[in-house]
Amino acid sequence: MNRNPLGDTMNKDNRNQLRMFGRVVKFGAAHTEQFPDNSLGGRTFAALNSARTRAEAFTASQAAGRASARQAAAWKAAAVEALHHTVDAMIRTAEAIALDTPGVDKEFQPAGDKSTDALLETASAFAARAVPLSAAFIEHDMPATFTADLNACIQNLQRAIEKKEDGRKAHMDATAEITSAIQDGFDSIQRLDAIVRNKLAGDPSGLAEWERVRHLDRPNHRVEAGSTDQDPGPTTTPPAAAPA
Q1: Facing residues of 128 across strands?
Q2: Each residue of 208-217: pLDDT tens digit?
Q3: Inter-residue contact 62 to 225 (CB < 8 Å)
Q4: Residue ranges per structural domain of the chain
């Protein structure tokens, strides 16, 4: 199902996953005798900590990208309204000019559809066509700066579109990094589950502690950097060994 990627932010499940990673890292720090730094277990605990740190580091840029895109969306909406206002005024005025100069109105027709791209294309064409007719438009009480105003509206909308896309890209890039880091963390958990169970096979209390720290409230939920009813976001599935 296609959903809006801007809804794709760190959600409760992601936070639970990172908290679980943190508990497991603390478990490793408390059992350095069994899992020294130079052992596979020690290195895997370090890799898990690195994945957790990486995911947390990208949450700020994910939120910033989302906020930027939303602000730009409001900017874009206002820019579209302003450009529509100017274009509509030119269409009405061209129809009036055509009373004296038949055919002028044919050069200033509404866009073929209501898309932003069509609006920009129409406005750009109007800006070029209005230059030789500027005196007639001004005579009909269009502002003396109407062509400059039209070009300014076009540029303003283009900047808003670019800003929104930049925010979306920053948000989605950060989301992908978070998803990747969480999956890397679950890969480490899967490896550690084998190592810890083997190492602590004769230690019931140690194994019980391991089961507790690696437990997730929703073990079968997909790993994803956020979920809403509107967005898909990149997803991964925790390895089967990770859930309790």
Answers
A1: none
A2: 999 999 998 6
A3: yes
A4: 5-236
